[in-house]
Design a protein that fits this description.
The complex is a heterodimer of chains A (147) and B (249). Chain A is α+β, with helices and mostly antiparallel strands. Chain A is built from 5 helices and 3 strands, in the order αβαβαβαα. Chain A has helices at residues 11-36, 53-60, 79-92, 107-114, 121-124; strands spanning 40-42, 66-71, 96-101. The relative contact order of chain A is 0.10. The chains are: A alpha+beta (147), B mainly alpha (249). The A-B interface holds A 13, 16, 19-20, 23-24, 27, 30-31, 34-35, 38-45, 48-49, 84, 91, 99-101, 106, 109 and B 137-140, 142-143, 194-196, 201, 205, 217-223, 226-227, 230, 233-234, 237-238, 241, 244-245. Strand 1 of chain A pairs antiparallel with strand 1 (219-221) of chain B.
Amino acid sequence: MARLRFPAIDPSHLSKLVGVVAAMVVVVLLNVVAARRFTRWDMTANKRYSLSPATTQTLHDLPDAVQIWVLLGSADPLEQSVKQLLVAYQAETTKLDIHTIDPDRDTVALEDIRTSPTPWWSSRTASVTGSSPPPTWWRWPPPTTRR
Amino acid sequence: MRSFWPIYKRELFAFFVTPLAWVLISVFLLVQGMHFFLLVDHFANMGAAASDQTPIQAFFGNTILLYLVLFLLVPPMTMRLFAEERRSGTIESLMTAPVSSWSVVLAKYASVLTTYVAMWAPTVFYLVILSRSGEVDWGVAASAYLGVFLVGAGYLSLGLLMSALTTSAVMTSARNWLVVLGLFILGVGEFVTREGTLMHDICSHVSVWAHMNDFASGIVDSRRLVFYGSCVVLPLFATVRAVDAWRWG
């Protein structure tokens, strides 16, 4: 049986590789941190993607984590603007946890939330385009637990 | 760093005396001009019924043409930097001269980046033409050009690294195409993978397509700056180590 042989690594090459690998690790960590805390600058003349001061204040004052479920098809004309809006929210706070489900394509995920044991969304869903969400829609887990 | 300017000037000169530079720039401007013509034609026919997209947005984002041009142009631009000189042996005189590896790498990188900027500069005239008949949001234009500059800077830096790793120009551009296309396809994974998974997060972080869409709509995101900053710095650092490796043995 033939023995599998690996090429020997020259120790002088090893020391050079260590520097490059260390730099790669630092860069990956830096990107992970940057992906979590980021800022967006709006360069449009009419400030199309900027949030109003009231919205930013609300986002800064969020007491605890908020779950947002977006059920929106990719063919929906609102899809892009809703996504941009949610990313703009995420730039202000790290407390948002956004789940996007495309009900037309990802039927499995749709079934998952439809059949999950506590139908919390039935009473607490904040429709993105709706007029007035119920006052405690951001509470997660919901204050009353059902058994 | 005193040796930076002489090497930089020599590299720039060497690129522009060859027909390669002029062929690349002509092809680039021809393709971009056709792209611009098609867009203007499209928007003129659509009239007021046009979508919420502006022509600048359509020129820089949401289009495959931008990436096709980048994929076709960047590998040939970087292929000669180190590979050609190592094959022909002229690298010997540079490597034995009292210059630091950093200044050699930075000078070569700066020269190719200057060429890239010079290639894109004439396209500003398209916007000037647009502004004569309509309104152009110069803030959005600035952020779109920033995006183009950052993507190009990242690709050129990767190309420089590939050039330092082989002695054959053809192999360099082949590898460069592989890396750049690989990055692009990984980014396309953003639309395929399920949201909320780690893979989706990675894909959307490196997705050039989504980045250019943001830049073209006038959004400058600090995540993109960090990503392209690392795309420039890391390959440059690795290139310096590679140059050191074949310089000092």
